[in-house]
Amino acid sequence: MSNPKPINQWLKLALELGPLLVFFFANARLGIFTATMAFMIATVVALAVSYALARTIPVMPLVSGVIVMIFGGLTLYLEDETFIKLKPTIVNLMFAAILTAGLAMGRLFIKIVLGTAIQMSDTGWLILTRAWIGFFIFLAAVNEVVWRNFSTDTWVNFKVFGIMPLTLMFSFALVPVMMKHAIETPDADGGSGSGQR
After folding, report:
1. pTM value?
2. 110: exposed, middle or buried (C-beta count within 10 Å: 0-12, 13-18, 19+)?
3. Would you say residue 25 lies in a domain?
4. Which of 50, 152, 160, 174 is buried most, with the most CB atoms less than 10 Å from its CB?
5. Residue 120's beta-bridge partner residues?
6. Which of 159, 149, 143 is CA-nearest to residue 26?
7. Does 51 reside within a domain?
8. Which of 116, 112, 37, 120 is nearest to 71 (CA)?
9. Chain-centroid distance, C-alpha 69
């Protein structure tokens, strides 16, 4: 089995945003059902490209993609847009539940996912885990409020142009926590990672 390869961060962002933008433009021109089908196809393409480039698929996009297929399929089969609108709620509550279950078992799942990119103390990982649990629940609640009280077009706009900026701002807000609890990794010669090479 080949080892995972790093993907350029801008390309990674494009792969995450691409299906959402396809969903937005298809909804504006062709309606929610055609947009749902286009969203499903674009999601599969993005996952395939991610795998082709990195030889692996990150856990969160993979789980989200599976839910897109399930709820998108229900939306098209039953001709009921409620299912695709529920998808963000289900995904966010699922991630919150997984992280909560990890805490109950004494496991820090965020550390497992991000531990190769960020080195922190377990206290830092615990703070991040609790913060993301709260944020996922917040996103689920906001999605419920928006789709139940506003038009489909407003919900699509929120899904595309609301959730991502909120997530980015939340991530940036956690940077001080990560810096505070960061730990240095030793170089190959046993010295500190912050020393000169």
Report:
1. 0.80
2. buried
3. yes
4. 50
5. 182
6. 159
7. yes
8. 37
9. 16
